[in-house]
TrEMBL record:
PROSITE patterns assigned: NAD_G3PDH
Gene Ontology terms for molecular function: glycerol-3-phosphate dehydrogenase [NAD(P)+] activity; NAD binding
EC top class, as a word: oxidoreductase
Catalytic activity: sn-glycerol 3-phosphate + NAD(+) = dihydroxyacetone phosphate + NADH + H(+); sn-glycerol 3-phosphate + NADP(+) = dihydroxyacetone phosphate + NADPH + H(+)
Official protein name in the record: Glycerol-3-phosphate dehydrogenase [NAD(P)+]
Keywords assigned by UniProt, alphabetized: Cytoplasm, Lipid biosynthesis, Lipid metabolism, NAD, NADP, Nucleotide-binding, Oxidoreductase, Phospholipid biosynthesis, Phospholipid metabolism
Glycerol-3-phosphate dehydrogenase NAD-dependent C-terminal domain residues: 179-318
Organism: Anaeromonas frigoriresistens
Positions of NADPH binding: 12-13, 33, 50, 107, 139, 254, 278, 280
Residues that, per the record, bind NAD(+): 9-14, 139, 254
């Protein structure tokens, strides 16, 4: 393929996607912030900190020059954590050319502004074409060619299908979806529930508890999502329940691992340090909590996770609070009509 891509962010996910594309014959530039990391990765052909043991194909070039990484590229992949997206876009916004597509893979909601990544992009680069690529896809498995399915969403079908074709391989299946809001929210909010699933595991609760959290969690996500303009069916898809399953059950998940540490008694900061990589759900819990208040949506699991992380609430009391809430219908707010004619 003669198309070119610049990947902004040389963490686990940026590197795994670079490897996937390079194996497809696509030349890739990865931008990293640090000159030492640039020299080291170019020389030893491995990302030792984030994807140890995986060889970087020769058609991947690492650069600490962000302008060079986006120059002459058809696609710019945003693979920095959510808290770094705004600053990264500020660095390139004046050099982006018409027609270049920004593909985001970060899964979070900005603290403070409560903006999804597409809203940040719209604010800073209003003329750009945008897509979000999301779904159940741990970097460690994608880098090893383990069969994976994801979804790409964009406002225009043309952009979504272009990105689908660009990333698709026999081991990496890409679906399309027009629902940008739903795909972004599913990927970001599942991280909050994965922290809760980890906490439950750290407390040595069982599979029943985790299934309850996952199921009631996706209901909360869908409830907020619908209020924010998403299609509720998106949350039954890869970026919703699909990503929730993998993140709540896999030991690859940094969110789940941080939750386990918190359930075992570590503080939030100690848990983040022990994971040593980005744990998006920590910041996004704050955004999710604030969004639920802004939109007037009942999100009891999010409330309790926010309380544990930011208000020093005891995790065991949080579980009791969830179990002793008022009795209610199962999916009352989603199937209101059916309940009222019951
Ligand atoms: N690792 C995975 O399996 C997947 C990760 N994601 C998402 O991809 C995004 C990136 O995550 P990972 O690569 O996994 O993180 P990581 O923790 O493996 O690496 C983070 C990278 O971002 C850089 N970075 C940190 N702060 C930055 C800032 N302010 N500005 C620019 N760069 C900064 C770090 O130096 C590092 O290279 C996250 O939003 C994550 O949720 C999505 C799908 C899968
Ligand atoms: O989003 C992911 C897998 O789809 C990665 O999840 P973690 O950030 O919890 O590792």
């Amino acid at each position: 393929m003669d198309k070119k891509i610049g990947i902004l962010g040389g963490g686990s996910w940026g590197t795994a996607l670079a490897i996937l594309l390079a194996k497809k014959g696509i030349d890739v530039d990865i931008w990293v912030r640090n000159k030492e990391k640039e020299a080291n990765m170019n020389k030893i052909r491995e990302n030792v900190k984030y994807l140890p043991g995986i060889v970087l194909p020769n058609n991947i070039n690492i650069t600490s020059d962000i302008q060079k990484s986006i120059h002459n590229k058809d696609i710019i992949l945003l693979a920095v954590p959510t808290h770094g997206v705004r600053n990264t876009l500020e660095m390139i916004k004046n050099d982006l050319k018409e027609g270049q597509i920004i593909v985001n893979v970060a899964k979070g909601i900005e603290v403070g502004s409560l903006e999804r990544i597409s809203e940040i992009v719209e604010e800073l680069v209003p003329t750009s074409k945008y897509a979000i690529l999301s779904g159940p896809s741990h970097a460690e498995e994608v880098a090893k060619d383990i069969p994976t399915a994801v979804v790409v969403a964009s406002k225009t079908k043309e952009v979504a299908e272009y990105i689908q074709e660009f990333f698709m391989t026999p081991k990496f299946r890409v679906y399309t979806n027009p629902d940008v809001i739903g795909v972004e929210l599913g990927g970001a909010l599942k991280n909050v529930i994965a922290l809760g699933a980890g906490i439950s595991d750290g407390l040595k609760y069982g599979d029943n508890t985790k299934a309850a959290l996952m199921n009631r969690g996706i209901i909360e996500i869908a409830r907020l999502g619908e209020k924010m303009g998403a299609n509720k069916m998106t949350f039954a898809g890869l970026s919703g329940i699909g990503d929730l399953i993998v993140t709540c059950t896999s030991m690859h998940s940094r969110n789940r691992r941080a939750g386990i540490k918190i359930g075992e008694g570590l503080s939030m900061d100690e848990a983040i340090t022990s994971v040593g990589m980005v744990v998006e759900g920590i910041k996004t819990s704050k955004s999710a909590y604030n969004l639920s208040k802004k939109y007037g949506v009942d999100m009891p699991i999010v409330d309790e996770i926010y309380g544990v992380l930011y208000e020093n609430k005891d995790v065991k009391n949080s579980v009791i609070n969830l179990m002793l809430r008022d009795k209610t219908h199962e999916i009352a707010d989603i199937v209101e009509n059916e309940i009222s004619s019951w």
